[in-house]
Amino acid sequence: MTPLVSAVNQILSIMTIIGQALIVSFFILLIYKKGWLVVRNFIAKYGFFFAFIIVLVATLGSLFFSEIAGFEPCKLCWFQRIFMYPQAILFGIAFWKKDNAVFRYAIPLSIVGGAIAAYHYSVQVRAIVSVACEQGSAESCATNPFMNFGYISIPMMSLTAFLLLICVGIIKKVNDKNQAVV
Predict the structure, then answer these.
(1) Cα(165)–Cα(100) distance, rounded to whole angstroms?
(2) Cβ partners under 8 Å of residue 23, min gap 6
(3) Distance between CA atoms of 97 and 141, rounded to whole angstroms?
(4) What's this model's pTM, rounded to 2 decimal places?
(5) pLDDT, tens digit, 9 for 90 and up, residues 118-140
(6) DSSP string covering 28-82, please?
(7) CA nearest 161: which of 26, 4, 27, 12?
(8) Half-sphere exposure of 90 (CA within 13 A, CB side)
(9) Per-residue pLDDT tens for 50-86?
């Protein structure tokens, strides 16, 4: 691994841990009304920007791994990309136009993409056996070019991005619904 690939890999892995900490924090703050209001207000104000940054980093990160680092994407990686890449365009337009309807489309895309990422990660850590990549794939879905901090791989990065998008989308929708009621 070149120094550039190693550095970007470490940065993306640390960003993944931060994202996972945010996901856990969202669920913990659900318990505390005051904390929940702080999160809701933050997402109401910065949700579009936050979601756009998530999809932009995920999209550019996957392109970095395949085009610069030379990690050939397997079939499951391609399926995850199918559900992430369009969101970069959707959130870019929604951020520019302040269109709340984008979460109506982003949440289902993220749920399906997240399910594929969770399955892919399970295949990588050999929790389950995959039949998805047995035939016609140049790269095995079980291939793992790196495992940072003992558990972070490309599918884990992808899963974290999809889960963050789901959390932001749900919080934004709940906040918008509560604002409409008031």
Answers:
(1) 14
(2) 160, 163, 164, 167
(3) 38
(4) 0.87
(5) 999 998 888 776 665 654 455 66
(6) HHTT-HHHHHHHHHHHHHHHHHHHHHHHHHHHHHHHIIIIIS-----HHHHHHHH
(7) 12
(8) 20
(9) 999 999 999 999 999 999 998 888 889 999 999 999 9
